[in-house]
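Private note to self, pasted from the team thread so I don't lose it. Backbone tokens:
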């Protein structure tokens, strides 16, 4: 695989341009082309010879849109093809205030949660910072967006992969995507979701990029959590909460817990009561999700009525909570339904 131009910051492009012996102003042109989601071959303001030089070093189109599925509710699911033939998925959801893109950070995932499709084949590889960024640049461009007038207004790191298990690339991505002069999505409009890798949560608090921190909790009890999330054997809920409080102290950002309601596992009255005892008084919000179906997994969700009952218990117990609207499930684009695949398998070879 060649290198990925979208991995580079403006400063890095400036050094590259110097190394190539090109005039300085080319750096801004290249960076602008990248932020507009262009392929190298489409950067028509560059000289032909520079385009040729760049194309020798870098992938022309490291993240290609292979297919787009549109849900009845308007949600779009993207299949992106990477330069090595791996396929990752992404989702674009439109809301009144703008469009939120859900991006992947890894091909596959190591965490192997019992309810999620992303870890079915384990971790295949980490995405580079540029491969994460390019997902956004490409979708923004497709929707007529520019860095000044973004079509993608919000970003959630909630696609396949565990962002904090790909820490260096994720942080580099966050620096580039929030950088002035680039596509410049504000950290307040970015949410990073983690299964709770405690040491990395502390590190993230120190980066000076105050993104919204979301933690996939799914149970108020360590032993029960470990049944559905193997990572819970490594990190106790009490330690996750301490890390969340530290994050709040450092960034001033309220944190969010994701809680997918699974029949017979975590959706009983006793779970609601334990959750209230655990979270009451903390600067947090609970996002309930009804489990989405994953055909290889044999877990079931609960009814909408039961989900509202659970929500009511949390609210009466003094928690700030919402039940997330289920969107994109008809195209396999809902939470936990995103997966990795290979070009070969898709063609049935
Ligand atoms: N690895 C990160 C990012 C994934 S975000 C994390 O664990 O947070 C995707 C969210 O969807 C997580 O909260 C995940 O636990 C949740 N999820 C996974 N499978 C699901 C399913 N089948 N139904 C509903 N939510 C699911």
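Design output:
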């Amino acid at each position: 695989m060649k290198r990925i131009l979208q991995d580079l910051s403006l400063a890095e492009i400036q050094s590259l341009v110097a190394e190539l012996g090109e005039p300085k102003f080319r750096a801004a042109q290249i960076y602008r082309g990248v932020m507009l989601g262009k392929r190298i071959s489409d950067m028509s303001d560059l000289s032909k010879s520079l385009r040729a030089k760049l194309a020798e070093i870098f992938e022309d189109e490291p993240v290609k849109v292979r297919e787009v599925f549109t849900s009845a509710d308007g949600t779009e699911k993207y299949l992106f093809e990477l330069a090595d033939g791996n396929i990752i998925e992404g989702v674009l959801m439109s809301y009144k205030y703008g469009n939120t893109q859900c991006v992947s950070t890894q091909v596959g995932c190591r965490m192997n949660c019992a309810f999620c499709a992303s870890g079915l084949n384990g971790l295949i590889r980490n995405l580079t910072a540029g491969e994460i960024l390019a997902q956004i640049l490409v979708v923004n461009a497709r929707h007529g967006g520019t860095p000044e007038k973004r079509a993608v207004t919000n970003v959630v790191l909630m696609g396949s992969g565990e962002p904090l298990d790909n820490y260096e690339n994720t942080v580099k991505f966050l620096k580039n995507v929030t950088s002035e002069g680039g596509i410049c999505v504000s950290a307040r409009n970015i949410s990073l979701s983690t299964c709770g890798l405690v040491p990395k949560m502390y590190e993230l608090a120190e980066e000076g990029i105050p993104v919204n921190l979301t933690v996939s909790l799914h149970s108020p009890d360590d032993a029960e959590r470990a049944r559905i999330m193997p990572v819970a054997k490594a990190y106790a809920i009490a330690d996750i909460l301490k890390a969340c409080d530290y994050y709040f102290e450092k960034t001033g950002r309220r944190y969010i817990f994701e809680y997918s309601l699974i029949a017979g596992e975590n959706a009983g009255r006793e779970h609601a009561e334990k959750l209230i005892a655990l979270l009451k008084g903390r600067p947090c919000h609970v996002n309930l999700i009804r489990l989405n179906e994953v055909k290889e997994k044999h877990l079931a969700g609960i009814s909408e009525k039961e989900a509202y009952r659970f929500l009511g218990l949390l609210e009466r117990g003094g928690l700030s909570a919402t039940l997330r609207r289920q969107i994109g499930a008809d195209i396999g684009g809902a939470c936990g339904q995103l997966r990795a695949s290979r070009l070969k398998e898709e063609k049935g070879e």
